[in-house]
Each structure stands twice: as C-alpha cells, then as structure tokens.
Design a protein that fits this description.
The protein has helices spanning 2-7, 15-44, 51-56, and strands at residues 70-82, 85-98, 110-118, 124-134, 140-146, 150-159, 162-172, 181-192, 195-204, 213-222. It is an alpha+beta fold and 224 residues long. The longest helix has 30 residues, at 15-44. The chain is globular, with a radius of gyration of 33 Å. Mean pLDDT is 82; it is low at 1-13 and 34-57. The chain folds into two domains: 2-43; 61-222, Calycin beta-barrel core domain (Lipocalin, Beta Barrel). It has a ten-stranded antiparallel β-barrel. The chain crosses the membrane at residues 21-43. Pfam families: THAP4_heme-bd. Residues 62-209 form the THAP4-like heme-binding domain.
C-alpha cells in the first residue's frame, strides 16, 4: 500500500527553481557560443602586422650593428687627454664579432674586445672585454669589464652608422688606482666603409665639477 501510494503522486517542481535552471542553461549556451565565435575569428582572421610588431618580433635585431662588426686597428691615431695626465697618443685594436648563442638563454650577442698600447713605448695600457646586443625595441646595450678594475653597463641609441652610448651602471674594485667614474659617454661613427671613429667623454670624482670632458678619440682602419 505504501509503494502504491507513492507511485500515484504527481511530481512537484517549484516554479522559482525551474526559472533558475532555465536561466543557468541559457547562460551556458551563450558562453559556449561566445567561445566558439572567438575560436572562429582567431583562426579565420589573422592578425595584420604593424610597425610595432616588427620591432617586437624582429628575429635579427643584431643586423642593425653589422656595420660595426669586424677587426678595427688604430696604429697611431688614438689620443687621450685629461686634466690629471699628460696628453698622449696610443694604438688600439677593437674586435667586434658574433658570439656563440647560449642554449640556456637563447640571447644573441656580439663579442666586444679592445686592447690599447702606448704609441711611443709599446707598453700595454688597458683591455676591455664584453658583449654588445640590441633589445627588441632597438635599444643597444654594451657590457664590459676592464683590467683597470672597472665594469660598465652602457645603454644607447642607434642611428645610421652612429651608435651613442651612455653609462647606466658601473662597478669598480676598491683598490683601483683610477678615479671613480661618475659619467661616461662613447660614440662610434662609421666615417667611411673601412674607417671607424670612437669618441669618449666622461666625468670622474674630481673632474669636471659638472658636465663631461673629452677623454679619448680613436680612428680605426678595418683590417678584417
């Protein structure tokens, strides 16, 4: 009798529950249609590349520095001047070449090395070793370490055959005999196809009190 009584009852559904169920189902359908539309638009309307995209996705940003690559040598045309030292001439060899790509980072660099010697005595003066690269926006970065106890991080801009760099950060061993450098600018300019000029300006802890002074100029000939 009990089972017969239950079997004869009509199902009871609250109207408010039914309404909520319908609304929920409608929302699911709308979301599904929206996702489907996004999927269709993504695969049937490819993105049109813009100038900004070209900067971000440039696969070879280092190509803008091709004119700087090579072996450059100045036998007698280097000149250094500073208030605390005698003006002198020097020779320098500058080598800028493609560096192996690290598998871990995938970043591309150019090796950067400079070796200078006294023009008159042939005494060794200084070395610089480091890397130069270009980020996707076109900013150039040069990182160097020298045997004078300094390491530098320089950033700059590139225009046609001219690279202008400015010191962004610097490290110095505490016992270096050279004065701390506060500011540094260097400019590379391709004068001719086989002639490169580097001009350096800087400010140390003592000179000048403000602004920058010319420090060195070198004119190289390309030998390789």
């Amino acid at each position: 009798m009990l089972s017969s009584s239950f079997g004869s009852r009509q199902p009871f559904v609250r109207a408010d529950c039914l309404a909520e169920t319908v609304i929920f189902a409608s929302a699911i359908v709308e979301m599904s249609m929206g996702l489907f539309l996004i999927f269709v638009l993504y695969f049937t309307h490819p993105h049109v590349a813009t100038a900004n995209d070209a900067k971000v996705f440039n696969k070879d940003p280092l190509s803008s520095l091709n004119w700087l690559k090579g072996v450059w040598r100045a036998e007698y045309s280097g000149k250094v001047f500073w208030p605390t030292i005698p003006t002198m001439t020097f020779g320098e060899e500058l080598i800028i070449q493609e560096a192996p790509v690290s598998v871990a980072s995938g970043m591309r660099f150019l090796n950067f090395s400079a070796r200078a010697w006294s023009h008159t005595t042939l005494d060794h003066l200084h070395d610089e070793w480091g890397y130069i690269t270009v980020d996707p926006t076109g900013k150039v970065v040069l990182m160097t370490a020298g045997n004078n106890g300094f390491s530098t991080y320089e950033e700059g801009t590139l225009s046609k055959n001219t690279l202008k760099l400015r010191l962004a950060d610097i490290g110095r061993v505490s016992f270096s005999r050279d004065l701390p450098v506060k500011e540094l600018e260097r400019t590379f300019t391709l004068k001719k196809q086989n002639r490169l000029e580097q001009w350096q300006r800087m400010r140390t802890a003592t000179h000048p009190t403000e602004g920058l002074l010319d420090h060195a100029i070198v004119v190289y000939e390309k030998i390789a």
